[in-house]
Amino acid sequence: MISEKLRQVILKELELKEFNLQDETLASQVPGWDSLNHINIILAIEKGFGIKFKGLEILKAKNIGDLQKLIDSKIPS
Amino acid sequence: MPQAIDFGKLLSLFSYDKYDPLLFGSSLFLFFFLFVLLVQRLFSNQKALRIYSLLFFSLFFYYKAAGIYLLLLVFSSAFNFYFGKLIYESKTALLKKIFFITALLVNLGLLGYFKYTNFFLQILTDLKLGTIEPLHIFLPIGISFFTFKALSYVIEIYLEMFEPVKSFRDFSLFIFFFPNVLMGPIDRASVFLPQIEEDNPITKEDVGRALFLISCGLIKKYAIADYIALNFDERVFGFPLRFTGVENLLAIYGRALQGYCDFSGYTDMALGVGLLLGYKLMDNFNRPFKATSVGDYWRRWHLSLSTWLLDYLFKPLQISFRSMRKWGTALAIFFTFFAVGLWHGPNWTFIFFGILHSVYLIFGMFTQSLRKKFTDSIKITGTKFHKFLQVVFTFHLLAFTAILFGSPSLQYTLDMLHQIFTFFHPEVFPQFVQAYTTVFVLIVFGYVVHFLPKSIEVKAQNLVIKMPVVFQAVLFAVVIWIVVQFKSAAMMPFIYFQF
Known about the structure:
The complex is a heterodimer.
Chain A: H1 4-13, H2 38-49, H3 55-60, H4 64-74
Chain B: H1 7-12, H2 27-42, H3 47-66, H4 70-89, H5 93-126, H6 143-158, H7 168-176, H8 178-181, H9 189-198, H10 204-238, H11 245-276, H12 294-297, H13 303-320, H14 326-344, H15 348-377, H16 384-406, H17 410-422, H18 429-435, H19 437-451, H20 454-466, H21 469-486
């Protein structure tokens, strides 16, 4: 499940009003999420959640679900 | 009296000749391929024999192009297969990293040694850091392609996107596969290897599609690219100062089309040949001259290389430089396109070609909002007219890089620009059309077909797929007849062979 917070961070960065983000959604399927914009979204997530990714961790993420799992693993529950 | 068979000559068909590789489109290749298909058909129920025979034929094909350097191909396969396993099975992250870096160093080290040693020695000499005689290093054909193919395997295992295959036989087929070993497409291990596992049967649709692709490839390469090159382009690019500016400009337009038809023609044939053997290779082109920006162009041209570099070089760089935000992305673009230039070969023209593309892209990135404001203010954003302007402008930016790509040295590039800007003489144009009618018609024809909607290509392809076999055979015979009419006595090597 994609959390509301992650959804808001992504939509705000891409200036989108609404988009249905699912676990299996790929970056390429989201309007405006291209190779140049990719890094802005990663930076926005790092800032929004107050976390820091390792380069390899981001490269391994295949879809938005993977990104959510990665964020969850960084935030102490 | 019947002539005796000259066994010496017959034998030479099977031995390595530097100047006579098995080019797609040559009659020897046709016989070779028919034989391969026959053997594949014979073993249609025995998968193992089919794969082993395909391995054998692929090795023979590579031997015909590179001789003893066949061993390098075998080494690449064994080394990367073994290291893929080592990376996957490593217990600690550190060990994983050590094996991965070793694999990168060995692959890139071999590529660097064969391709760039003399270039660096020359730089040392030019910088007066010592005079070292160039070494006699043979460039194993296709090394840039099969090295990148093999690298995709170890990188994807390291990134945990793909598990190593268990069969060395299957992995070797991925590396050796003759349709893409010399000039790509640079297929991904994660896409090609599962196809060996699945072993899908060849359908009637595959055959029709293959026939369509091979026909398109033959026409693009032999009727368009080679004809324009031999009869016009090579003359102008060889002696730009002997021609007026208008002829130089037309040669550049011709050269852009020739480069596309040469390389995409080869790819079409590779895809068709692959399909007839039961493998779907990666498509490499999507009408590159329809691009509305240089970024868009790289999503349409040599896709198997551009996506490789995007995934394995650009993205990691961009992530490491992310604290610098836009400047970090700019730096990542610069390094990636420097690599694009260098990948093409040890020549400054290629390196400038890459740098120029990075300048285009970085400039485009920084001026994006400014350009949008401008087109908004004159109310053309998103209109057809805007798109038209974008296509024309992008095409000319690309044509400019095509001069670098086609010039033997930077001096020739400067000479061409000099002629265009100071000795244009547009009145020569009618004479040019008269003297080079076929060349002119081919250039116009090539561009018109390129800009036709994709739906027409799909319709034409479906028509060929649905045709009865007899009609397909007649169509193919007609294509071969056309190609023979255009084909020159000496076949031109494919441009991308040198890479």
